[in-house]
Amino acid sequence: MQIETLFQYANDNNTRTKVEIQRAAQQLLGGLFGVICGSDDFAYIIQTNDFCQHRTANTTCYVFRSKMIY
Description:
Layout: H1 2-6, H2 14-29, E1 33-38, E2 51-56, E3 59-65
Antiparallel strand pairs: 1-3, 2-3
Protein name: Ground-like domain-containing protein
Pfam families: Ground-like
InterPro entries: Ground-like_dom (IPR007284)
């Protein structure tokens, strides 16, 4: 499954993780994606139809396709 492939990049370096997940999402799924990764609790508000959240060890990542409204 493509979503599982995205999270193979999750590691303890949140900066590297989010960059690699974003790159993979754009290549595999097309479109513009945002990625939020953190080791602690975080809150966010995003308008999107396509998203996924995954936790591995101490890192949680939220991936979403940008919803372009002009």
